[in-house]
Design goal:
This protein has 172 residues and is mainly β. It has one domain. 10% of the residues lie in helices and 28% in strands. It has a four-stranded mixed sheet with strand order 5-4-7-9, with no helix packed on it. Strand 1 and strand 2 form a beta hairpin. The longest helix is centred in the middle third of the chain and has 9 residues.
Length: 172
């Protein structure tokens, strides 16, 4: 895979000399997830920022309050991948990002831009048996509604009621 900071996971190896990227064993799942369909033009041409956010990383940061503050203020750029905005198709006007499954990631845009709508599109290669990918982002505004469905666009899919995803089996 190409080298992105957020893909530098323990089960993979950074090899910039031979592959100019990251090499993972064939047991690792990598899936493309696209973010698009936002509701404000302030997102146009903004970088999408992604950092590893697994529990062990969070525990290490909480042990050092200064490091945590630096990280949360996005001053620790060595931890973040800056994914460029793409205006071409699949999808248009958004960000398409590879993620290693079974990990958590902290995500945000530009200068912590706020939004009321953002669509997330998982790769066609995604299988029901794939491990999950979890996202953590800042939340600073009251939302009218948040709906999770099992189908693209919310049509013909199962709608998961609020507060039930934490108890939903991974296969579902």
């Amino acid at each position: 895979m190409p080298y992105w900071h957020h893909l530098d996971q323990p089960e993979c190896t950074v090899d910039l000399d031979v592959y100019n990227g990251i090499v993972c064993p064939n047991t690792v799942q990598v899936r493309r997830i696209a973010f698009y369909g936002y509701d404000s033009t302030v997102f146009d041409m903004q970088n999408f920022k992604v950092a590893r956010w697994d529990d062990d990383i969070v525990a290490d940061l909480k042990a050092d309050p200064e490091a945590l503050e630096t990280f949360l203020l996005d001053e620790g750029w060595e931890h973040f991948s800056r994914i460029p905005f793409k205006d071409i198709k699949l999808p248009t006007n958004g960000w398409a990002v590879p993620f290693i499954t079974n990990h958590k990631y902290r995500i945000n845009w530009g200068d912590g831009l706020d939004f009321k709508q953002m669509k997330i599109w998982v790769s066609e290669r995604w299988e029901p048996t794939d491990y999950p990918v979890s996202f953590v982002m800042n939340f600073t505004d009251v939302r009218e509604a948040v709906t999770f469905t099992s189908a693209y666009g919310g049509e013909n899919g199962v709608v998961y009621e609020n507060g039930t995803l934490l108890d939903t089996p991974l296969a579902d």
